[in-house]
Design a protein that fits this description.
alpha+beta; 3-stranded mixed beta sheet; two-stranded antiparallel ribbon; 2 helices; about 20% helix; elongated
Length: about 80
């Protein structure tokens, strides 16, 4: 299995490459992992969280399932 930190890094890189998403933020650097602990929290912000990786035994190769949550934080009344 691919380690969760590598999967999470790949997903963050993918989201940072999405021009339509980055246009809604101040900069691509506002897309981070959910457990990011910094002092300069800027709104709006996008956070990526991975769940527990479980192997898929139905496939002969090494496949797994990783649930992912994307959290959007905003100072507005709604993050919609």
């Amino acid at each position: 299995m691919i380690p969760n930190d590598r999967v999470q890094a790949a997903m963050i890189t993918k989201f940072k490459s999405m021009a339509s998403l980055v246009a809604l933020l101040q900069k691509a650097a506002d897309i981070k992992e959910n457990q990011w602990q910094g002092r300069d929290f800027v709104y709006p912000a996008v956070r990526v969280k991975l769940g527990t990786q479980t192997p898929i035994v139905a496939y002969p190769c090494s496949s797994s399932f990783v649930p992912m949550t994307v959290q959007v934080h905003s100072e507005d009344a709604s993050s919609k």
